[in-house]
Amino acid sequence: MGGYRVTVDTGGTFSDFVYLDETTGETSISKVPSTPDDPSRAILSGIDILLGRGVRPDEVSYFCHGTTVGTNALLEGKGAKTGLLVTKGFRGIYEVGEQARPHGPAIFDILYEKPQPIVLPSLTGEVLERVVHDGSVLAELDEAALRETLAELRGQGVESVAVCLLFSFLYPRHEERIREIVREELPDCEVSLSSEIVPQIREYHRLSTTVINAYLQPVLARYIARLADRLEAAGVKTPQKYIMQSNGGMATFEATAKKGVTTVLSGPAGGVTASVAMARSTGYHDIVTFDMGGTSCDVALIKNGTPVIANRGKVEGRDIAMPMMDINTVSAGGGTIAEVDRFSVLQVGPESAGAIPGPACYSRGGTKPTITDCNLLLGYLSEENFLGGKMRLDTQKARLAVETHVAGPLGMDVLEAAEGIVRIINVKMEEAIKAISTMRGHDLRDFMLLPFGGAGPLHAARIARELGMAGLVVPLHAGVFSAMGLVMSDVTHDYVRSRLTALDGASASELNAIFAGMEGQALADLAEEGFPADRIRIERALDLRYAGQGYELTVPIGALADATDVDAVRSAFDAEHEVMFGHKASGESVEIVSYRVKAVGLVPPVDAKRYQPSGGTLADAFLGRRPVRFDGENLDCAVYQRERLDVGLVFAGPAVVEQFDCTTVILPGQQVRVDEFKNLIVTEVA
């Protein structure tokens, strides 16, 4: 391709950049403080760093962005004022939801409250029309009544409208006509149709997903337009501009602006993508990813080199029926605040200091103690060598923050308080890892922990030991690893169509005909985005269930030539059901619930760079020694510069390994080996 690939992952504290020279294959990185009020400002700062090295704007041939704009709007309740249109008689679907509280800890929470609805009942309108279960029209759309309803919404200042009619995934014409009328009556209003966003069964999940898209779409569209204008003004005019999606693939700026709901896991998805590539290159196929940044911690499980993709999930208790990485997120980051409440109980999180004012030690106005402040006091972080020496940390301000808000009120020593705070946050993150592993039947002794993000490698050694894991794999550019994943991502579009039919007796030609229609749309979409046929991969899957079940399993399928292939699909479903639930019902009939197509536009791959030993010694990387606190004891600890550690070197903990983008802490009793990719392989000494 030539030129430079530029990727950026916007975090709560820092925005991480990766620059790949496609001619030489060389990679460089940078970090700049995030600008939460307008993330595009930080992005332009990162672009300016590359241009300051003599690169011309027209040499930027590819740009990809992992964004939290949509996620933050959803979590903070700062989306667009949204109206909802439903079939007459079904306005209660949104409020009723699944008629039950979620599974897990919420079952035991006597104070549990459902999330407040995004759309208020007063902004929900009923539409006179009716389509029945087979897609036939029982009652035509009453357009006059619809215009009266829209007049009411217009009077309440609605910015976006979600439309979710009964069985519209079988007959979308009524929703399409409603969009035409909305554009006439509310010309400045965005419209999201359930028949386009998520055309599948289960009314509540389809409605919830469409509402979230309508809520986020104007926010994402404005942000993407502003970012595109700023890139254009900076001279970055490449047509290959992408946003990371929750499914681990990318989409164009234009596609993302129409379907903002696909970005709710945009940020952490890049890290999982990079982790999959690392699993394949290193041979460690069973991995738990551990992404700890400034405001949150995201964990995911990779088994046999493959991440878990869910067709449905929750974000902050809100249901989204879209393919997404199965990522568990907790409020635990370097900026997480610790303080003593009015009952004299130490609370760690969920509030974060974020980028502004940030931890107290950043000297930007923060006064409350954070995890970063504690790590500095314990000796894990360097006062002088943070961000390669570009940013100085203030130990005295960190000490004052911990003393004032935690140690003093509890009558503790400052270092004891700091160590206790770190232990609490570690337990929270360990519980997040258990939720996706041991609680699902996986044995963590078989898994390596792959830490990344600015704070991940600081905490990973302790967490891996506490959980009894096989060890750690700390990547070379751990601090910007999510941005590295954006370099490796392909463009991905997911298509789904629900149509309840019996698998038993279905012919291969019937199934192929349905898939052909979906694949035709997929090929057309990717061709419009510039992908030739030989750079497109199509994957098929079926959602299957035993007749009468209330849930289904997604089964990947290959080419269907005859009845034998259809029988093989049935056998694959039985086998998957037995693996998931411990039993199968080979004598029961099986139903097809939904057809799924994943279309992948293949971007030229980036291979992991292998390094040859250069003859460097451990002394070449040695920076000095400093006291570091482990388990209540201050130990004289060796400090090494990561960039100078040569392939094949081995050393023992306790140790601290510093690099530009993060710091890795090695515990006493652990050993480190530098592999051919310059990953740090950390294991317990036998």
Q: Could you characterize what this model shows?
A:
- It is a single chain.
- The chain contains 17 helices and 35 strands.
- Strands 13, 14, 15, 20, 23, 24, 31, 34 and 35 form a 9-stranded mixed β-sheet that branches. Strands 3-2-1-4-11-12 form a 6-stranded mixed β-sheet, with helices on both faces. The chain has a 4-stranded parallel β-sheet with strand order 6-5-9-10, with helices on both faces.
- Strand 14 and strand 15 form a beta hairpin.
- Helix 10 (371-377) packs across helix 12 (414-436) and helix 12 (414-436) crosses helix 13 (456-467).
- The two termini are 48 Å apart.
- The model has no long low-confidence stretch (mean pLDDT 92).
User: How would you sum up the global shape?
Assistant: globular
Beta-strand segment tally? 35
User: What Rg, in angstroms, do the CA atoms define?
Assistant: 26 Å
First CA to last CA: what distance? 48 Å
The proportion of residues forming helix, as a percent range, comes to 25-40%
- Number of continuous helical runs: 17
Q: Which runs of at least 5 residues are low in confidence (pLDDT < 50)?
A: none
Mean of all residue-level pLDDT scores: 92
Structural class: alpha+beta
Major sheet summary line: 9 strands, mixed
Keywords:
Oxoprolinase-like; 17 helices; alpha+beta; Hydantoinase_A; Hydantoinase/oxoprolinase family protein; 686 residues; six-stranded mixed beta sheet; Hydant_A_N; nine-stranded mixed beta sheet
